[in-house]
Amino acid sequence: MNLTEYVLGALRTESELKGEFGFSDENSFLNPREFHAAMGLVTETAEFLDAFKKHIFYGKPLDKVHLLEEIGDMMWYVAILCATKGWDMGGIAKRTEKSVVGNTAQKVFSYSGLEFNGWLLHAGSNAACGATALLESVLCAQEGDDIHQLELRVIMEQMAILLYSLGSSFEDEAQRNHDKLKSRYPEKFTSEDALNRDLGKEREVLES
Questions:
Q1: Residues 6+ positions from 90 with CB-CB distance below 8 Å
Q2: Would you list the domain boundaries of the chain?
Q3: I want to staple 1 with a disulfide (CB 3.0 to 4.6 A). Which of 29, 108, 136, 175 is the partner?
Q4: Quick check: 45 and 131 in contact, CB under 8 A?
Q5: C-alpha–C-alpha distance, residues 123 and 128, integer Å
Q6: Buried b vs exposed e over 32-47: b needs ≥16 C-beta within 10 Å?
Q7: Which stretches of 19-117 are DSSP H helices?
């Protein structure tokens, strides 16, 4: 899926902003859309890492569909941030993919007898660090496109490594995430649909 089209689709499912936490105050230093995107990237990268925590320490098998779903959810927040800043998500994605494809060696690590692709854990951890740095800069009102775009590039480079390691691409996961959210929000975002998800139906969409 073309990432320009994906961004437009993401905006269709963006939640309505509320006048809470001082966002409605004209003196507030927080941009609510940037805050939403940065916080969302922190939570989604954490969910990605949570799969590895459960795999390494609890013995739960890694689920490729679930891992790709979490990357797709990261992409949604990247799309919101790019739309807010007026950045070309597709252009950034192409540059990051070019920088990692062919340079990412496939390494398999063993931990307590459980094998997994070490690049996934490493890149997932780096993406989480980048997301945390982005959120901190937003919360501390560190204005400037240069700061936020640098942090976004770090996150997207790690996402490109994740996608490469899992045999996918930004375009493929954009389509998958778009289809999942289309099934969740047939028209547009609603709080009711967000809180009452049909996970079985969404899983079918992700596996199709």
A1: 2, 3, 4
A2: 3-13+29-207
A3: 175
A4: yes
A5: 9
A6: bbbbbbbbbbbbbbbb
A7: 32-58, 64-85, 89-100
Give the DSSP per-residue string, 118-155: HHHHHHHHHHHHHHHHHHHHHHTT---HHHHHHHHHHH
The tokens of 9 are what? 């689709």
The residue whose two tokens read 């009102």 is 141
Which of 15, 51, 67 lies closest to 192 in space, CA to CA? 15
| Residue 178 burial (CB count, 10 A) | 23
Query: CB atoms < 10 A from the CB of 204, how many?
Result: 12
In sequence order, what DSSP letters do the residues of 174-198 get, joined into one string? HHHHHHHHHHH-SSS--HHHHHS--
- pLDDT tens track, the chain, 208 positions: 999 999 999 999 998 765 555 555 555 667 888 989 999 999 999 999 999 999 999 989 999 999 999 999 999 999 999 999 999 999 999 988 887 765 654 455 554 455 667 778 989 999 999 999 999 988 886 556 677 888 999 999 999 989 988 889 999 999 999 999 999 988 888 888 888 888 898 899 899 8
Rounded CA gap, 160 and 8, in Å? 21
Please, which residues have CB within 8 angstroms of residue 38's CB and are 6 or more apart in sequence?
77, 81, 131, 134, 135, 137, 138, 139
